[in-house]
Amino acid sequence: RALWVLPLLWVGLDWLRAILFSGFPWMDLGYALWQTPLLLQSADLFGHYFITFVVVLCNSLAFFLLCTKEKGKILSVVMVSLFFLAVVSYGQYRKTQLESLMFLEDSAVVGIVQGNIDQSRKWSPEEQQRTVTKYVDASRVLLQQPARPELLVWPETALPFFPMNNPLMESLREMTRETGVALLTGSPWFEVKDAAARDINFYNSAFLLAATGEIDGVYFKSHLVPFGEYVPLKKMLPFLAPLVEAVGDFTSGIVDTPLIQGRIRSGVLICFESVFPDIARQWVKNGANILVNVSNDAWYGRSSAPSQSMAMSVLRAVETRRSLVRAANTGISAFVDPVGNVLVSSPLFVPWSESRAIVLFEDVSFHSRYGYFFAPLCALLVLAVATALFLGTKRDS
């Protein structure tokens, strides 16, 4: 019994970690298999939590075989082996099926520009013009390639200024009007609620600049980084005011209508949001046929974090069965297909641009409809087992 309860407990605790205190589900165990697409396919049923369940189950079996003298080892080996065989068989079936379907489904060419802008100088006023020029020049070169993009994607806060009525926006509008290609990019944003009271909301945003040169849709990041983009309980704890000024005081948005450019309906994940499967799932339920992850991982330097962030993004593609376009300021930028194959990715800390044809799947996966209940169900089952054991012990005493 413990062989099966341990994976339930692990997954249940991972789920709690993802929801308590705003959640921080960074690199759950299942993400370790992100480069093994065959073992990822069941994530479209029950999410990355199911991959974690499989990993813990197999390792628990190895422990029991090596370190215990419990009876019934043969039965345990048979049961877990059949379970693992079912996971692999489903993976092979779905992988083959989807790779065949991708040749038949509609596709669109998307371009990524990775600017590699120095984080320490990015926000200085004298760097803003150079930043815009660098992105525009790289985009124009990309648009001259045979595989001409229908949509350009720049990273999170690629524009280090508020785009409303900023003269630096003119070169972007000129580019989109001349080329007829829309741009999806990140930038800060603000909305004035009450000018007299100086009530202003600031946002971490991604917006779509249409081929007409007009802003045609904007998304405000809905899951902010605690103590990075906002300070929790700041109204209840006024002594945190200095921390708010030092960290940031952004307002969260909501997941609503995808950013639409022709056939492409983009569900946007801004940086940290790629860690949360529920945000990607909500975009798909709202009609997104691709996921776009704009990020700025320059904060992490040359640590393992950019690779970890990339790994978690791959699982969002598999869970939702959507192509994922990832544009990061200093990398890793990439194109990921709905099977979880990384079609191409950038190195870290270099300017980089690339375009690829990506498939536009429309079907909604089982995980996006119902399978996301798997993790909370694991937590409930563990609670039920614990309750039963407690009542049984109390009855025996």
How would you explain this protein's 3D organization?
The protein has 397 residues and is α/β, with parallel strands linked by helices. The protein has eleven helices and twelve strands. A six-stranded mixed sheet has the order 5-4-3-2-1-12. Helix 1 crosses helix 11 (374-396) and helix 8 (277-285) runs parallel beside helix 9 (305-320). The longest helix is centred in the first third of the chain and has 29 residues, at 73-101. The chain is globular. It starts with a helix and ends with a helix.
Describe what is shown at a glance.
The protein has 397 residues and is of the alpha/beta class. The chain has helices at 2-19, 43-46, 48-67, 73-101, 125-143, 169-179, 241-247, 277-285, 305-320, 366-369, 374-396, and strands spanning 107-114, 151-153, 182-194, 199-209, 215-220, 259-261, 264-270, 290-295, 323-328, 334-336, 342-345, 352-359. Strand 6 (259-261) and strand 7 form a beta hairpin.
Mean of pLDDT: 91
Please bin the fraction of helical residues. Answer: 40-55%
Total E-strand runs: 12
Report how far apart the termini are. Answer: 22 Å
Sheet with the most strands, sense and barrel status: 6 strands, mixed
Structural class: alpha/beta
Beta-strand content estimate: 15-25%
The strands making up the biggest β-sheet line up spatially as: 5-4-3-2-1-12
Radius of gyration: 23 Å
Order of helices and strands: HHHHEHEHEEEHEEHEHEEEEHH
Runs with pLDDT <50, length 5+? none
- What gross morphology would you assign? globular
Number of helical regions:
11
